[in-house]
């Protein structure tokens, strides 16, 4: 099974103490965050991984080489010259997902202990174009889902902006995107965007005529390491095996 790790976009929210190193190599209980995630993916059966890089790309590549690529296949997508955001970053690595099987996409700054294999198998059973992990948590922006957990819109509760792409007459439920997802390679047939763009925007565009499913996961640990409180909690809860 294959996976992609987004590291290229996390540096824009770095806390000051990470300003001279990539957040991918920030240590939690003496293990770099990137290494923790690679091990989790590999232990869950994802043995082929591609990682996009932007800030401090050389340090990340040297780290991978120094660890012998963790004994699995790891490729690097270099976005040093232009950060492509999540959608553009995924489009650039279409060549990697050449086995016609779904793949997981994971944003590095998210730390979670959810069962990734269970998520993957649930996606396969669903036949959806994409399955996105969501939570009931505090946020200012929400994805909106119908009673079948199909993506139907988006809302910003600060600005009041709302977009509905399907089931306009049905009451929709708010969930916050956890930035973990499983995607069918069929999605590449629907991408016409060029340059940098966000996956969330693509999902909203495609949801009108395709099944983009929400996967509620509120029982697992979930932390946003782009925020100081997330790093503090991670250092308390995650102990190196």
Describe the protein's architecture and organization:
The protein is built from six helices and 14 strands. With 241 residues, it is α/β, with parallel strands linked by helices. It has a single domain, classed as Spore Coat Polysaccharide Biosynthesis Protein SpsA, Chain A. The strands form three sheets. Strands 1, 4, 5, 6, 8, 9, 10, 11, 12 and 13 form a ten-stranded mixed beta sheet that branches. The chain has a two-stranded antiparallel sheet with strand order 2-3. It has a two-stranded antiparallel ribbon with strand order 7-14.
Summarize the structure.
This protein is α/β, with parallel strands linked by helices. 24% of the residues lie in helices and 28% in strands.
Biggest beta-sheet profile? 10 strands, mixed
Helical element count? 6
CATH architecture level-2 label: Alpha-Beta Complex
Q: Which structural class do the helices and strands define?
A: alpha/beta
What distance separates the N and C termini?
Answer: 23 Å
CATH superfamily: Spore Coat Polysaccharide Biosynthesis Protein SpsA, Chain A
The CATH class designation is: Alpha Beta
Which of globular, elongated, flat, extended, rod-shaped describes the shape? globular
Which fold name corresponds to the CATH topology?
A: Spore Coat Polysaccharide Biosynthesis Protein SpsA, Chain A
H/E series, N to C?
EEEHEHEHEEHEEEEEHEEH
Instruction: Kindly state the number of beta strands.
Output: 14
Mean pLDDT across all amino acids: 90
Radius of gyration: 17 Å
